[in-house]
# Entry
Amino acid sequence: MEPVNDSMSFQVAAQVVTLRSVLSDTLRAAIVSGRFAPGQKLVERELCALTGASRTSVREALRQLEAEGLVTLRPHRGPSVTAVTAEDARHLYGVRGVLVGYAARLCAEARPAAALAAIAAATVALEQGAEAQDHRAIVRAGDAFHAAIGEGSGNPVLQQMLVSVHNRLVLLRNLSMALPHRVREGLAAYAAIRDAIAGGRAAEAEALCAAHNDAGAELALRILEQAEAKNTTREKRAG
# Structure
C-alpha cells in the first residue's frame, strides 16, 4: 500500500474538478448574461482562446452545460447555445411557477433576516434601474430578488432547481424586462411579494409569485409564438 501515491492521485482529481467547475461557471455566466446568444454556435477553438483552457476542459464544461439545458450538442454541427421554443417555455414556466411559489411560502414562514434584507435591497435596486432605464440593472436586480427568496426558503434542493430553470429562461426575461409596461408591472409585483414575505403572509406570497410568473409566461409565449410564426413564413417563402 502506497498512501503517498494515493494522496497525489486524489489531489490531481480535485484540481481537474475545480478547473472544470470554474470554466463551467464562466461559460454559464456568459450565456446567462447574453454574451452568447441563443442559437449561437460555440466554437471550441475560440472558447479555448477566450478562456485560456484546453480543448478537453472546454468540452467537459460544455457537457456540463448541456446537462443543465443551456447548451445543445448536435453531431457534425458542434455545440451551440440552446434556443428556447414556445413549447419549451410553456414547460419551463409551468415548473417555475410551482417552484417560486413554494420558495416564497417557505421564505415567508421562516423570514430569515438576511433574506429579508436582500429582498428589500433588490427591490430598491429594481426601482433605481427602472428610473435610470437601465435594462441590465433591472435584470440583475430581478435575479438578486429571486435568489434571495430561494436562499430564504432554507431548502438547498429547491434553490438549485430554481437556478437551473431560471438560467434557461434568461433570454425571455431579458426580452420581457426590456418592455416598459412589463417593468412597471414587475415593480408592483416585487413590492407586493416583498411585503407579503416580510409580513409572514405565506399563502399570499406564494400566490403573488405564481401570478407574477404566469404573467411573464404569457408575455414570453406571445413573443416566441410571433417569432416562430415569422420564421415559418420566411421559410415557406424561401422554399
Remarks:
- Residues 94 and 214 are 8 Å apart (CA to CA).
- DSSP finds ten helices and two strands in the chain.
- Residues 1-6, 8-14 have pLDDT under 50 and may be disordered.
- The radius of gyration is 20 Å.
